[in-house]
């Protein structure tokens, strides 16, 4: 499928993840990205930069297998983030690191991550990749989908502006995204709705597993909250009580089960939101290679609020 991205500049993923080491366990961001209409720096970038920092304090014989993080405050893109890595434990099979992200003297993000010496002789098993998913070559890039939406007649100027902004943002992102399946509700899924996207880091060389996992940390934060909002039938550009008023990540976790994947090739991100209440939603995700290997499992909880007011407080 022809792509509109060929003649467009996009940020290299290595630039988005780059940090500067200025003390043994202290690192500083070099670039930060604030999404259009975002409340703060893109969470996936903070996750990935924290991972790059933690990985530099670990023996290469140990591979990252899990992380859990909390987003405490919105981070500004105008001030560097400092990442402080604390070496909590160095064991024979597992190493544990804590990363605190600081900006203007305040903690904006906390992460715990664990590294494991591989045990390839142990048994393996996985959920299979969903069947019938169109290959990435048959799916349009998100920026091309927004370009097509702009061709509709009678679009309000504000809607046109939003579509142009979304298309530009996706076109310049280091991650290419293609919608594969939307609103998948079938007997195979029971009562929940799945959303599936192909994702790929653009124009990257073949990196080793440690950096591949940092790239995956970046892209793992894309579209999860959107899946929750769509499950609730909340519309970002809607009006009234079904308009999406706010979405923001609270916490995020990843478990890795493979070291052989390549984010420079397409990964299928399958996501579903099984529960939402009280302005919060949880989303589960699985990331598969195009050959069907389940390489990582994600969980995210976030604020997902409709444009509705609660009852007035009574004195």
UniProtKB/TrEMBL annotation:
Residues 33-116 form the Acyl-CoA thioesterase-like N-terminal HotDog domain. It holds the Pfam family 4HBT_3C. Keywords: Hydrolase. InterPro entries: ACOT8-like_C (IPR049450), Acyl-CoA_hotdog (IPR042171), Acyl_CoA_thio (IPR003703), HotDog_dom_sf (IPR029069), TesB_ACOT8-like_N (IPR049449). Residues 193-304 form the Acyl-CoA thioesterase-like C-terminal domain. One of its GO terms (molecular function) is fatty acyl-CoA hydrolase activity. One of its GO terms (biological process) is acyl-CoA metabolic process. CDD domains: Thioesterase_II_repeat1 (cd03444), Thioesterase_II_repeat2 (cd03445). It comes from the Eukaryota. One of its GO terms (cellular component) is peroxisomal matrix. Belongs to the C/M/P thioester hydrolase family. This is Thioesterase-like superfamily-domain-containing protein. It comes from Mycena pura.
């Amino acid at each position: 499928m022809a792509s509109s991205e060929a003649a467009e500049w996009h940020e290299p993923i290595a630039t988005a993840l780059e940090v500067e080491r200025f003390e043994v366990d202290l690192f500083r961001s070099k670039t930060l990205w604030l999404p259009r209409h975002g409340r703060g720096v893109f969470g996936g970038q903070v996750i990935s930069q924290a991972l790059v920092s933690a990985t530099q304090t670990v023996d290469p014989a140990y591979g990252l297998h899990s992380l859990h993080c909390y987003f405490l405050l919105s981070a500004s893109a105008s001030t560097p983030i400092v990442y402080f890595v604390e070496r909590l434990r160095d064991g024979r099979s597992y190493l544990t690191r804590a990363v605190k992200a600081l900006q203007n003297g305040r903690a904006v993000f906390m992460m715990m991550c664990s590294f494991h010496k591989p045990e390839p002789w142990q048994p393996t098993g996985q959920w299979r990749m969903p069947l019938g998913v169109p290959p990435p070559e048959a799916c349009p890039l998100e920026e091309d989908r927004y370009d097509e939406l702009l061709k509709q007649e009678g679009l309000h100027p504000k809607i046109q502006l939003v579509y142009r902004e979304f298309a530009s943002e996706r076109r310049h992102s280091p991650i290419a995204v293609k919608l594969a399946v939307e609103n998948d509700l079938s007997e195979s899924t029971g009562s929940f709705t799945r959303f599936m996207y192909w994702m790929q880091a653009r124009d990257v060389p073949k990196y080793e597993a440690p950096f591949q996992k940092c790239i995956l940390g970046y892209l793992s934060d894309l579209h999860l909250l959107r899946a929750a909002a769509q499950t609730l039938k909340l519309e970002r550009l809607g009006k009234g009580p079904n308009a999406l008023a706010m979405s923001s990540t609270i916490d995020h976790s990843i478990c890795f089960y493979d070291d052989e994947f390549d984010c420079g090739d397409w990964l299928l991100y399958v996501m579903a939101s099984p529960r939402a209440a009280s302005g919060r939603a949880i989303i589960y995700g699985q990331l598969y290679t195009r050959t069907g290997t389940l390489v990582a499992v994600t969980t995210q909880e976030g604020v997902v609020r409709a444009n509705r007011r609660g009852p007035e407080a009574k004195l």
